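look at this stuff:

>
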Amino acid sequence: MKGAKIAIIGSRGIPARYGGFETFAERLAQGLAQRGYRVEVYCKSSLKDLPYEFENIERVFLHCPSLRFAEKLCLSNKGIVKALFRGNDVLIILGVSGVPMGILARVAGRKLILNPDGLEWKRGKWNFLGRWLLRRLEAWGAKFSHELVADSQAIQDYLRETYGRTSTFVPYGVDPPPEDPKAWETLSQRFSLKEFNYFLAVGRDVPENNLTLIVEGYLRAQCEKKLAIVSDLGKTYENFRGKERVIFTGPIYERNELYALRLHAFAHIHGHSVGGTNPSLLEAMACGNPVIAYDVVYNREVLGGAGLYFSNAGELAEKMEILKKEGERIRAKALDYYRRVLREKYNWDVVVEAYARLIEKIFP
């Protein structure tokens, strides 16, 4: 058995039900446990009734308010304090919300690995005070953590240029898509979708995910294929509900159902504009979808020359027309690239091994 006891703090917990950080926490915990580490994952209390068993992984439950930012602050900082009393040697902190108690943990002699995520302060939901606070936490985290992890090379460059701090590039991995014919049959009937006859967009309805822009570009293209949007029913839904050929599914959390929609889509439209390597983009690639992505450095880093890019509704409409005419050629080119990069770079074994090396470096 490895000597270090590891705490993973800052996600909502496992089993993964919410998003990329939770999937990351689950796969990292499993990989480290398989390597003989004792691992604790700190979870919101509502997950307590969901069964989860994995050798060498213990879930620690925290009661926190349900307000989004307050919940994140509570899960991170309360989790770090609890991890100190439970004798953890290395704390892997996801996001910058836990930096205040992380500094306390460092003073107490614990080793800290911080993954600050992708420039959270740039998200449109934050006011001036929220952005200021998040940037302060980011700066303190860069100063006080033993090791910094960047999930994209663009974030790695940012940390070096902004804080003069070297970080280790470790992206996310992605699992092979599960085949579930029953899930596809159910969803296709529920939303009147035909195989390879719809574009798919997945993401929360927040400004930086550009769902409104995606609908505007789609309508401008006058495409006969439908547009399916998997998201919470926010402003985009209110503005465009009832539009012919635009399908709002609401949120879908069941993994097999979401993958069924991805696998049978004609193409994926990825509007995320903030952050590093995005798990939703990797999932689209794993399903073999051609991708039209919002034109930012993070998306280009992942997709390279295999993607099509847009920055406004007109460009999106143009790229949809190109894909309609040259879909088979673009799909074949994309698949060759996806197979290579998902094997060599966005691979959970590679990710876990990188974190294991960091742990051994700071806690030999």
Remarks:
- The longest helix spans residues 313-344.
- The CA atoms of residues 77 and 100 lie 7 Å apart.
- The mean pLDDT is 92.
- The longest strand covers residues 38-44.
